[in-house]
Please model this.
Amino acid sequence: MGQEPYRYQTVEKHILAMMEQGALALGDRLPSLRKMSSNLGVSLSTVNQAYVELERKGVVEARPRSGFFICRHSMRLPRTEISPSSMDSPRPVTRIGLIQTVLEAVGRDDTVPLGVNAPDPSLLPLAELSRITTTVVRENPKRALQYTPIPGDPELVHQIAFRSMEHGIPVAPDDPIITTGCMEALNFALRSVCRPGDTVLIQSPTYYCFLQLLETLGLRAIEVPSDPENGVSPDDLHHVLTTFDIAACILSPNFNNPDSSLTPDRAKREIVSMLAQRHIPLVEDDVSTDLHFTQKRPDTYKQYDKEGLVLLCSSFSKTLAPGYRVGWLLPGRFRQKVLEIKATTNVSTSAPSQIAIAEYLRQGRMTRHLKRLRSAMEKQMDTMQLHLERHFPSGTRVTHPSGGGVLWLELPHCIDSVELFFQARAHSIGIAPGAIFSTQDKFSNYIRLSCGSPWSEQLDNGVRTLGTMAHALTE
Amino acid sequence: MGQEPYRYQTVEKHILAMMEQGALALGDRLPSLRKMSSNLGVSLSTVNQAYVELERKGVVEARPRSGFFICRHSMRLPRTEISPSSMDSPRPVTRIGLIQTVLEAVGRDDTVPLGVNAPDPSLLPLAELSRITTTVVRENPKRALQYTPIPGDPELVHQIAFRSMEHGIPVAPDDPIITTGCMEALNFALRSVCRPGDTVLIQSPTYYCFLQLLETLGLRAIEVPSDPENGVSPDDLHHVLTTFDIAACILSPNFNNPDSSLTPDRAKREIVSMLAQRHIPLVEDDVSTDLHFTQKRPDTYKQYDKEGLVLLCSSFSKTLAPGYRVGWLLPGRFRQKVLEIKATTNVSTSAPSQIAIAEYLRQGRMTRHLKRLRSAMEKQMDTMQLHLERHFPSGTRVTHPSGGGVLWLELPHCIDSVELFFQARAHSIGIAPGAIFSTQDKFSNYIRLSCGSPWSEQLDNGVRTLGTMAHALTE
Model:
């Protein structure tokens, strides 16, 4: 990986944007290296790297002594647009059977990894973290073997507090509570603020594990639309709050799983203030924000929280070490309740995992690793989009996320994505069918594809096979 | 540690039993080495080791050319007897505040460790497990970094199944579900079989975390007496089952925390059959059984389970690696429900912890380690009893457990053990006050002391100070 992982990608994006806007069409010649270099103020070699990359992706072809020419019709599938859904009444959640089937792929090596949202091990600092783990366990066998305090290993707690502060989140050094992954943070948060039978406001579509969590806890869900381009609208939220008795909300500020929507910072501020007026807790799933492709890290809801009503949940599972099972919770005013729940769930989180990640953070390795990971994820998502366009039936639309790790595909209406899921599974291809992301039936022709792995022959074959299946289902 | 860790202790116990029965009194001369050796059929050096050990403990003194003489009045405090309590109606659980205060000592180094029930690190195979951990993480960085399947790392699942089979538990190789400690197993088990508002039958006294767990889950408790000598009586259980609507039971088969009671195997069989007739699930806390001081491992309830109604919960926290947070659940017929709950709590358990313990078991190291640990725990408990007798006010009674790691003390009636707890805490001495082990008030003059640490000056001072405080509270 070069010194400037972003620069050539900027050039690439520029070309792709020109194509989308129609400024470059099939058969057109790309501007010369020299011209592009001077237009964009980057080096010749950077432009060259971008052109070669586009050639590798099959977007352009090099013709001897003539330059690079566009050889593909369109760049990407059109953006998906979700029609504003009727905000139905609260309903019990009953997707657990299908979700369970989808989850069976977790931790399996024999499946094309388009179903599970996790970074491929090759993108993680395996050797570095493994070396740090062995060192801290060897040097502190006693610390590794003993219970950590219930809130977590103090060094890790502090490291997470410092990182949160850097992100503009108002937090004291001892505020974070360590959890066994983000899912556990969400579980504790929700159990701290809800009682069985309560109604919880969620985005639609939403991460299926939230639905499963609500079902397990005997909670009811009311859905507000999540628009891939504009996230959650304060107006929609206001409508629900004034119509129903809401005990809590679960919202993803950025790169909502599955539609990768990002709620604008202004809307976040408005939502936090609207909820504060009504004393309604907001459980924030911040697990994807670190995977932003934008220059600036988008804000979290927690940044606008003056009342301690936002419970921010996050983890290292999408960025550093899924198997270590280390997440955290900034519990706001619900600290005591969260600690009670943690004490009766598993008391404390694995000590070797905690002290290894604390040391990784202490050595300042996270920032550089994240920069590389983001760059890789963006590239993978880009490549995936190009291949989808090639193989999927016309009428397919897809999100164009500015971060995260998943794409959300709207297939032609006649396709039942649960059927596609089972067909794919029979070919050892994992995908997530739209039905599991809502209590309603409006996503029956959607699928979510993970972009967590570098492009490979396995992925290439997987996407091609999926496309063939999708074509067949339109007939 | 010698080749035969048990033999000299058998001799010691024999002497102590003679003292308890009055066959040896203050000032009496111990039988000669030769006589004792021939009586008990052990070597001279074994008898000598036992006598020297008793001298070290201050029970006997050696007089030159005369032999060993009893120099202490009585050996141990008398056994505690709990009067059969009225089996009250089910009641909500509300101890969580006090329990929280007691739990604050978890993971703290600055407190005399009489409060938390965990083995001292010096009794754990720190170096061995640390070496295995570093090796498996170094050799399998990818396996350590990735999610394991939801039920757990397959190798660990199999190892636990094999150990269970060795203990006579009917289990298939894939049955165990790995959890983040035993507490999590209990949490999942209880959530699988109960709904908020349900009534759960518990032993009285019971482990305070169970009360906290019931409170957190909105469950009600009905208590049946746990007798230190005879555990739970099938008759008492029958009475409760025919009087109240019971959704589930939590029972500890052996060395119930805090009274270390062991329910006889015959009673276990009867209880399992009684519950099966009524289709009532039994959540079994088996975390202490491996710490038996008896030759034979006492049975578990699960061994008598024909209907899949027993959910056995256990962990390595009291025997191998508290901080690794690895436990398991044999879920019987509730497997699917448990997996659903696990998927919405934290998906999977820390991979480095799991694969390290799997390898430790695979190498066959556990059996030898447990043998040493049991021997050490028994010795520590013995020593603790002798010191209690020396320092605590008359009227104090104590359990004489045949396993586990805690002693349960009945203090003179006028002592409020919550008061003693706060006084001790002010001197950085951790103890567990009786009140937190029941929803009723009958244990207000009881305390639980942990025997997890080898005898030391710190413990000596701690027990002496505690005794002084207890004396003062009787005035």
